[in-house]
């Protein structure tokens, strides 16, 4: 028998019509039911029905919002009602719910707010004698929080596609409530088992929130608005419902919550790696979207209290590098938020890293050296909040570290020298006595001798910049003591062998004059012409070096050896030199990016690219040895 092609479609339409005719009275019964248990049963019936069509979502969500009871929890039945409501809402997200996004966000905000209040009520009202009886209640509360987080993961990608003032405003209310709930569940540990339970769902929610913030920030920028992170506490209330203020509100609150969750994860002994990764990476990426106040206090607290076994040094290093990276891009406007306890924790953490470096195996020293370097960058940024005795003790610890290291450990420490130079320059702000017996003065002399002896051109630049800043601010009068006779700039520039006693001071003077010119608002034509000529000379030097032919190796007879297939170890000096080269190129590239001279950028950018290519080739060659 031949089947009519429209028969299947007609049957589906009839089934859909029957389902809708059954849905309408069911929703009405749910809204009008006054017995809590009956309402729960009706909602469960709704959740067990077939998949909802798009046209049904509006009436269903309207009924769910009506059913939500914002009053203080009255017991298990109250929580069971809310669990049933959220299960239906989660099922609704399986369909295209974009048209009902506002209703979803309203329900989600209600759920987050109620859960937060429930956590407080639960802790305050349940004493030890009732703890066993309330285990089921506790479990229900955790399920409701997880359902709310899972629903948010479905909603936030939808919100990223609907960027209007009203939607962003409603989304902000929803996100802020959920961030508060997540933080309360994890950090404040207000309910037994909440942290471990929520930690499973939180990373995905936080990642989606970070993605949404990026989209919103780009939308605000395209709307000809400049992002600005306000230092004051962010509240749910706001006066001007414009796009930029709402985006700023959401992004700032997200950063603050990520900081707190990140410090919690860092202090969990390595058990919350997923939370740690998403929180710290999120902080850095969001801070890079706009300049402004940074939650330094949140970064620094609890890091020094964390146990630092060698095996976990990589985990602890993530927030350290994140903060150091963020501080390079952001201006700290509110130093009052950083208390003495946070600063003490920062120094305690630094001392722990240095002590750990001394006893760690060589395989871990490179990573620890990176963390020490990052901590020196952080301390340099907040040096005006540091006490004299803290800076003195750290200087003495660094002196012992650098002066007593040799071999492979010393090669690993070479990557710390740029950060050491920055830290040393900050010592110019200290007041100290100028006597031979002073341990601090002796340590400073040795460390500056170490820096200015460096003959790599990039480190020469950094050492001169550091010493110039230090010399301009220090109360120390015998500055000649900081310069050893074999300082790099004391050597004859042509021969590289003969030492000129006046060479260092003349080179330092020329260097400082160039630095002053680079910091000027406007460059003269003569200054620009001079820098261009130096760039050409540098290019010529590189080209000449690259054209030097390699001497042919004498023919050797093939010798079969058991070591023939083994890779030869690169000498420490080559690896150290490559690190310095790469650091120097980063400094030059950063300086070029900061200048406003378009002509200088056009002329020098190509030369820098050639240098970077040359360095890459050397690195590639070294890797093949």
Any overview of this molecule?
There is one protein chain. The chain has 625 residues and is an all-alpha fold. Helix 14 runs parallel beside helix 17. The protein has helices at residues 7-32, 36-47, 54-67, 76-92, 101-125, 135-159, 165-186, 194-222, 243-266, 273-287, 296-300, 313-329, 340-359, 362-381, 388-404, 408-413, 417-426, 439-452, 457-473, 503-518, 525-547, 572-594, 598-624. The chain is built from 23 helices and no strands. Among the domains are: 414-519, no CATH class; 523-544 and 568-624. The protein starts with 6 loop residues before the first helix and ends with a helix.
What is this structure, in a nutshell?
Helices cover about 70% and strands about 0% of the residues. The protein is mainly α and about 625 residues long. Helix 8 (about 195-220) runs parallel beside helix 10.
Write the layout of secondary structure elements.
Elements: H1 7-32, H2 36-47, H3 54-67, H4 76-92, H5 101-125, H6 135-159, H7 165-186, H8 194-222, H9 243-266, H10 273-287, H11 296-300, H12 313-329, H13 340-359, H14 362-381, H15 388-404, H16 408-413, H17 417-426, H18 439-452, H19 457-473, H20 503-518, H21 525-547, H22 572-594, H23 598-624
Helix pairs in contact: 1-2, 1-3, 2-4, 3-4, 3-5, 4-6, 5-6, 5-7, 6-7, 6-8, 7-8, 7-9, 8-9, 8-10, 9-10, 10-12, 12-14, 13-14, 13-15, 14-17, 15-18, 17-19, 19-20, 19-22, 21-23, 22-23
